[in-house]
Amino acid sequence: MVTHESLDRIPKLLDGKRMNVPITGSSGQSNADTVFHFHQEGSTVTAHYAGGTVVHGYLVGLLHGDQLEFRYAQLDTNGKLYGGHSVCELEMTSSGRIRMYEHFEWDSQEGSGTNVFEELPAESADEA
């Protein structure tokens, strides 16, 4: 988990980071093919994402202590809109990358679960 002394680093840790979801809850739609691009200013965190069954998705949230609280909205490949909310815990892996445990609940349909986000390596100038 994120400690209070490492919270000062969170604004610098999340801004510009890319993550995917290698572990998806049973009612989740994001997966390892879904790439999230994060931005952060102070305690405000946003991300846009796409991939897998998600055509377009957006997160907006606030950092509260050692938790990140999000609202999300997304459009899937069938043209259906979905939305919900999440509470997330952050940790640093032994390799120095960010891991996020997202506890989500859909507002647009039945279902909830936990997704695990993993930070992806930085894009090279050729990929960006």
Account of the protein in words:
The protein has 128 residues and is mostly beta strands. It has a single domain (4-119), classed as Lipocalin. It contains 2 helices and 8 strands. It has an 8-stranded antiparallel barrel with strand order 1-2-3-4-5-6-7-8. Strand 4 and strand 5 (67-76) form a beta hairpin. The relative contact order is 0.21.
Q: Low-confidence stretches at least 5 residues in length (pLDDT < 50)?
A: 1-7
Shape: globular
| Biggest beta sheet attributes | 8 strands, antiparallel, barrel
**Number of β-strand runs:** 8
| Strand proportion | over 45%
How do the strands and helices of this protein lay out in sequence?
Blueprint: H1 4-7, H2 10-14, E1 18-23, E2 35-41, E3 44-51, E4 54-64, E5 67-76, E6 81-92, E7 98-106, E8 112-119
Antiparallel strand pairs: 1-2, 1-8, 2-3, 3-4, 4-5, 5-6, 6-7, 7-8
List keywords for this structure.
128 residues, mainly beta, Lipocalin, 8-stranded antiparallel beta barrel, 8 strands, 55% strand, disordered N terminus
How would you briefly describe this protein structure?
Helix content is 7%, strand content 55%.
